Amino acid sequence: TRILGFESSCDETGVALIEVEGGRPPRLLAQALHSQIAMHQAYGGVVPELASRDHVRRVLPLTREVMAQAGLALSDVDLIAYTQGPGLAGALLVGAGVAVSLAAALEVPALPIHHLEGHLLSPFLSADAPEFPFVALLVSGGHTQLMRVSDVGLYEILGETIDDAAGEAFDKSAKLLGLPYPGGPHLARLAEFGNPQAYALPRPLLHSGKPDFSFAGLKTAVLTQVKKLGDAPCDQAKADLAASTQAAIVEVLVKKSLLALKESGLRRLVVAGGVGANAQLREQLNAVCARRGVRVHYPELSLCTDNGAMIAMAAALRVQRGMAKPRRDGGFEVRPRWDLSAA
Ligand code: ATP
Ligand code: MG
Ligand code: FE
């Protein structure tokens, strides 16, 4: 079975082709991605209407690119998967509309996929795929959750953020430091030159005893420090503040992951979502998990943020397990808000 997957929930247009043969690990045949980051940067964040229009422009050329890379024709595709939600309604509608129309034209079924399931299962695109069950730390731009993952489709939320997501905390703090959008990777780069102990920033809920998170207070604390630095802060002070901010976020993510591992009795951790690309997070998780005999799996760096491959992979794993309930009637809906435990 060859599955063509589409991602368009936010500011990346992603298309990928995956092949499923029996029980063997699904194989990524080709993928293409266009990020709209440069387009949105002037506005300091994603402009939904611009995002939708750009998905319209990109999706078919990317699809052609994927088919050319794979050396296959659209008539070789057996199933079309697309991100149904959560995300920006207009952006989702473009990917879903194209996917369902293409499926109708090719007379193949269309399968809606939950975007966060895509993130969660993205480490299955690596050669060293995790085994079920595992604890998942999902840290993206819009979500921060710890989950118990028993199998594909069996997701139990152990804890989540009560306000901002970890990626949001990175991005908002970075913006206060005058860094471009999305600030996470920029803040991480600046932090390399700073002292993580220079500023004592809050770690809300660190000792709550539950795998929950709160990051809203952090950006307020960063704002207070930025104001103290005045109009022309020196580079070292900015780097110190960046390093201290990153240290605060990473410490909470690491401690809460350990708590979830302990509570669940599991010895495997999967980290997914954009913040999973953060080098400090990886380094510290690797260290504490090695001491406890816990295996940690990450997606490839380039697959931490949004992409089509993770959507095609989620579809592939569902197809392999006989869980896919694709539609053939040309109908579809998007779900801008959609709880993963209900997927
Ligand atoms: P969601 O998946 O919750 O709908 P999203 O799709 O916007 O949100 P992702 O694409 O998974 O989120 O991740 C984007 C986020 O990851 C941004 O907040 C970005 O700043 C952050 N990010 C990416 N790389 C890094 C890094 N190296 N360090 C810290 N944060 C990072
Ligand atoms: Mg994005
Ligand atoms: Fe995402």
UniProtKB/TrEMBL annotation:
<keyword id="KW-0408">Iron</keyword>
<feature type="binding site">
    <location>
        <position position="119"/>
    </location>
    <ligand>
        <name>Fe cation</name>
    </ligand>
</feature>
<feature type="binding site">
    <location>
        <position position="115"/>
    </location>
    <ligand>
        <name>Fe cation</name>
    </ligand>
</feature>
<keyword id="KW-0819">tRNA processing</keyword>
<protein>
    <recommendedName>
        <fullName>tRNA N6-adenosine threonylcarbamoyltransferase</fullName>
        <ecNumber>2.3.1.234</ecNumber>
    </recommendedName>
</protein>
<feature type="binding site">
    <location>
        <position position="278"/>
    </location>
    <ligand>
        <name>substrate</name>
    </ligand>
</feature>
<dbReference type="InterPro" id="IPR017861">
    <property type="entry name" value="KAE1/TsaD"/>
</dbReference>
<dbReference type="GO" id="GO:0061711">
    <property type="term" value="F:tRNA N(6)-L-threonylcarbamoyladenine synthase activity"/>
</dbReference>
<keyword id="KW-0808">Transferase</keyword>
<dbReference type="InterPro" id="IPR022450">
    <property type="entry name" value="TsaD"/>
</dbReference>
<feature type="domain" description="Gcp-like">
    <location>
        <begin position="28"/>
        <end position="312"/>
    </location>
</feature>
<keyword id="KW-0963">Cytoplasm</keyword>
<dbReference type="InterPro" id="IPR043129">
    <property type="entry name" value="ATPase_NBD"/>
</dbReference>
<comment type="function">
    <text>Required for the formation of a threonylcarbamoyl group on adenosine at position 37 (t(6)A37) in tRNAs that read codons beginning with adenine. Is involved in the transfer of the threonylcarbamoyl moiety of threonylcarbamoyl-AMP (TC-AMP) to the N6 group of A37, together with TsaE and TsaB. TsaD likely plays a direct catalytic role in this reaction.</text>
</comment>
<feature type="binding site">
    <location>
        <begin position="138"/>
        <end position="142"/>
    </location>
    <ligand>
        <name>substrate</name>
    </ligand>
</feature>
<keyword id="KW-0012">Acyltransferase</keyword>
<keyword id="KW-0479">Metal-binding</keyword>
<feature type="binding site">
    <location>
        <position position="306"/>
    </location>
    <ligand>
        <name>Fe cation</name>
    </ligand>
</feature>
<comment type="similarity">
    <text>Belongs to the KAE1 / TsaD family.</text>
</comment>
<feature type="binding site">
    <location>
        <position position="184"/>
    </location>
    <ligand>
        <name>substrate</name>
    </ligand>
</feature>
<feature type="binding site">
    <location>
        <position position="171"/>
    </location>
    <ligand>
        <name>substrate</name>
    </ligand>
</feature>
<dbReference type="Pfam" id="PF00814">
    <property type="entry name" value="TsaD"/>
</dbReference>
<dbReference type="InterPro" id="IPR000905">
    <property type="entry name" value="Gcp-like_dom"/>
</dbReference>
